[in-house]
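Figure caption, in words: inputs first, then the predicted bound structure.
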Amino acid sequence: MKGQVTVIVAAGGSSSRMGFDKLFCPIGGKSALRRSVEAFCGRPDVRGVVVAARRERLKDVEKELEGLPDILAVTAGGAQRQDSVLAALAVCPDTPYIAVHDAARPFVSREVIDRVFQKAFETGAAAPAVPVKDTVKYAPGGEWVKETPDRRTLYAVQTPQVFRVDLYRRALQSAQGREATDDCMLLEAAGIPVALSEGDYANYKITTPEDIPKEVRPMRVGHGYDVHRLTEGRELILGGEHIPFEKGLLGHSDADVLTHAVMDALLGAAALGDIGMHFPDSDPAYAGADSVQLLKKVAALLRQKGWRPVNLDATIVCQRPRLAPWLPAMRERLAAALALSPDGVNIKATTEEGLGFTGSGEGVAAHCVAMLEKSAPGEKETLVERRRL
Ligand code: MG
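Bound structure (magnesium ion present):
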C-alpha cells in the first residue's frame, strides 16, 4: 500500500516554559518545526503532512515550511492538543492510518519512524518509547514520596504515535472533553490496546532552552607552505627548537620554516593574508625575530577576529639531519604558543629520497594545514588557556 499514513504535526504549543517560540529556534540552520516536518516528507508510506498551528502563527508556519514537498495543509489548532489534532483530522485525506508527531521533536530518525509505522500496521496503534533512565517517584502534591514504581516497567513515550484512523476516531468520541497529554492516552481510556516500538533517546522533545543544541560553529581550513635555503654560519631552528647541525636556514628572521608554514596556514584559514603582510622582511623589527613569538602574535590576531585554532598538521621536508627526536618538543612548543593541547598539533618529517632541492640539502621546506573554528560570542579564551591560568 502506498501512502497509507497521513501525518499530523502538532505545532500548537504555547512554549510557555521556554519564554520564546521553540518551534522557530534554529538548529544547525533550520528551525525545529521544519526539521520535525521534513522527517516525514518524501516517504513512500506517507500521503502527506497536515500541520496544526496556533491561529496567530499560521502565516509564519506556512512561510517556515515553504518549499517542502508533501505539505497538505496548515490548519488552525485549538486550545488543547486534541482540539488541534481534531482540526487537522478534518482536513486529512482518507488514509487508513494517521501519525501524530510533536513539532518540538526535530531529531526523530527514519529508523524510529520505520519501526513505529511497522508496529502500527501490525497492531492498529503504536508509539515509540524508551526505558526511563531515572528512578521515578510517585509523589502526588510533589512534597512527599508515596511510592517508587518498578523502573523496569516504566517507559517514556515519544512521537510519532500512529493509529488506525477508525480506532483513533472511536477513542476521540469516547474521550469527549477529557484532557490527554498524548494521543495514546485517548485510546487507553477507550480500552484500545497500544503497542510500543523501540524509540530513541535522541528523539527528545524540546521543552526548555537547555534542550536546544549549541549551533554548529563555522569552521575554516587553511594551507601554508614555506622554503628556506640551508647555509653555513646559521643556526637551524625548526618549530622553535635549536637543532645541532653544521648548517642553518637563511632568512630575515630566525628562518624557522616550520613555524612560518604554520602561521601561513592559520592566517590562510582566517583569510588574513600571509606572514609577509603582517611581518614584512623589509622591516628591521623582524631581523632575527623568534618565529614562535610571531606565532603568538598570529594567535592573538585570530582571537581578536573571533577565530580559534582547532588543530594543525604539518610536514617538514628535510634530507638531513634526522628530525624525529626533535618532533615532540616542537609539537609542545607550537601547541603552547597557540594555547592548544598537544594533541591538536601534529608534526611529521620526511625526506624526498634525495630528490630535488631538499634532497640535495640546498633547502628545507614545510607544509601545514590548519583548522579554525569561530569562537562562541563572549568566549574569551579556550579551555586550555583557562586550565593554564
Ligand atoms: Mg619563511
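Residues 377-389 have pLDDT under 50 and may be disordered.
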